[in-house]
Amino acid sequence: MNLKEMVGIEAAKHVKSGMVVGLGTGSTAYYMVEEIGRRMKEEGLDIVGVTTSSATENQAKELGIPLKSIDEVSHVDLTIDGADEISQAFNGIKGGGAALLFEKIVATYSKKVIWIVDQSKMVEDLGKFPLPVEVIPYGSDQLMRLFTEKGLHPVLRQDEQKNIVKTDSQNYIIDLHLEQIKDPDELANWLDKQVGVVEHGLFLHMVDTVIVGYEDGPKTLQ
Ligand code: 5RP
Predict the structure, then answer these.
(1) TM segments (predicted)?
(2) Is 0.95 exceeded by the ipTM?
């Protein structure tokens, strides 16, 4: 079993019947969604899922997981999602899979958030992984200029065919190549104020539990 599968299965143990569960996005969250689907079929687990991307929505539908949108539920009991980096302070960078906007909305309305990662994602300080920023296409060149002037080393995300990547909301992603983020709160506050920025991948003070996959087994950190 690979480490992503290990933590996906471990996290799914926290899911109980009757819960509204936020279903994250990415190659690690994929295994958690598969395990929830298996438990529903084989163990009679009964939940409602709230998905964080069209990719996860398609997967959940194939597994027969009943779904509601974030606007159809009063709250989410538990969200389980992957992350690109997690610092010692339990802050994270997310958005490598371009789903950060829905992921942040679902996490915001969740009573509890669990992140699942393999050990390579645990870092001292955030920033080696480029910080994704979701922006409205209109005016995005101006934001590129602004980020360059600020020394934030922006790169507009493109796919392998050099097409601009579009999010589920038809926005663009600008990745900031920062190497090290000394003050994540300060950067998050600044990004929050920039017109045209829809959301950014700094997920600060949002997670309760992190399940890390090591070769000798999963470890739950709180
Ligand atoms: C998608 C995300 C993912 O959770 C993050 O990129 C981790 O993905 P993976 O588990 O595939 O490494 O934030 O927007």
Answers:
(1) none
(2) yes
Q: Among 10, 85, 103, 134, which one carries the catalytic annotation?
A: 103
Q: Which atom of ligand 1 is nearest to the CA of 201?
A: 13
pTM exceeds 0.90, yes or no: yes
Does the structure show a pLDDT above 90 at 101? yes
103 catalytic per annotation? yes
C-alpha 187/C-alpha 93 separation (Å) is 12
Q: What is the pLDDT of residues 7-41, one digit of tens each?
A: 999 999 999 999 999 999 999 999 999 999 999 99
26 lines ligand 1 (CB under 6 A): yes
CA atoms within 13 A on the CB side of 111: 10
For a substitution probing ligand 1, which of 51, 84, 119 has the most ligand atoms within 8 Å of its CB?
A: 84
